[in-house]
Amino acid sequence: MKVLLEGSSLFFKNYTGIPYYILNLHQSMKAQEGVDAVLGFRMKKKFGKHMPRQREILKHDHLWYLGKFMIPLLRPQVAHTLHTPFLDINRALKVATIHDMAVHLPQFREYGLASQYFVEKRFKLLGEFAKKADALITVSDATKNDFLRFFDFPEDRIHVVPLAPSTFVPQGDVPGANNILDRFKLEKKRFFLFVGGISTRKNSINLIKAYQQSKSRRDFKLVIAGNSQEIPHKVALEYIDQNNLAKDILLTWYTEKDELRALYENARAFLFPTLYEGFGIPILEAMAHGLPVLTSNKGAAPKTSGGYAILVDPLAPENIAQGIDCLDNFNDGHLLDAKNFALGHTWDRTAKLTVDVYKEYL
Length: 362
Hints:
Blueprint (H helix, E strand, L loop, with lengths): L1 E5 L10 H13 L6 E7 L9 H6 L4 E5 L2 E3 L6 E4 L11 E6 L17 H17 L2 E4 L2 H10 L7 E3 L16 H8 L6 E5 L8 H10 L7 E5 L4 H13 L6 E5 L3 H10 L2 E4 L8 H8 L4 E4 L4 H4 L5 E3 L4 H8 L7 H12 L3 H15 L1
Parallel strand pairs: 1-2, 1-5, 2-3, 5-6, 6-7, 7-8, 9-10, 9-12, 10-11, 12-13, 13-14
Antiparallel strand pairs: 3-4
Helix pairs in contact: 1-13, 5-8, 6-7, 6-11, 9-12
């Protein structure tokens, strides 16, 4: 089975959820018997500046495409759009993955999760999926149900395929972990971790307010890892300054794989009261590292966490604060069960379920 995976999002400068989804799915799909999966990139990406990780990707089999024309020539049986743009290839089974619909949900319009241009462009793309795809994959039931609120598409042709933790999850010594912690001025098990940067979508301001209200603030720092949006970042800095939190809260900005892994390995607990997730891979990553987890009671987070996390109302800082102060209630048996649940999600499983979708229609 020849499978073309649209991978143009791998040319993003910084990698977050979607690029890692593409890389992990492609790598695991290559191990599926009878599957020949190749990444395809829009031709215009060929002529831009490539980062080291992109140059490494381009050392392996790939192709460039312009419209329906591919170099080198490939006639795939499956054309799978993993993010954007839509692969509309003649005589191929057309499949598309939908990650989340948060920016389109009416309950979040007042928060301005994305620019109007992005919202309209994304909605147009999803409309193209609805019109042209033979089958759709969503990463959660929540995303499937959200999509059906807006688009007329046969429900039996929408397949839920859960994701998995990043490939760095297996335990072991992190190279230079102590140096990483020293650089961030952190002590082992003396900080809470949040992954996602400062943004409206990730509910970072309410997290900071909740942390400020919590009793646990006396004993644990708060580390916020990831890039930040300009306006929420400014609001966060003002709040931190006004409430004398500068010594208690660390903003790391973008973290490389080893840095993030060192933070997971050495955190006391994981705080993730995001407004809304289409899936929420960091939840599984934290559980796989044996961390107590607090997350949102909205979107896909409750199901992704499998009943092993403290669920809070992301719009209520006082409720988040109460949840933070209950994280010590998890015993070792609960944390082990949570870890096993998270490790049951693998990219090999995701790849197999994805290939099963293809086979159903070929």
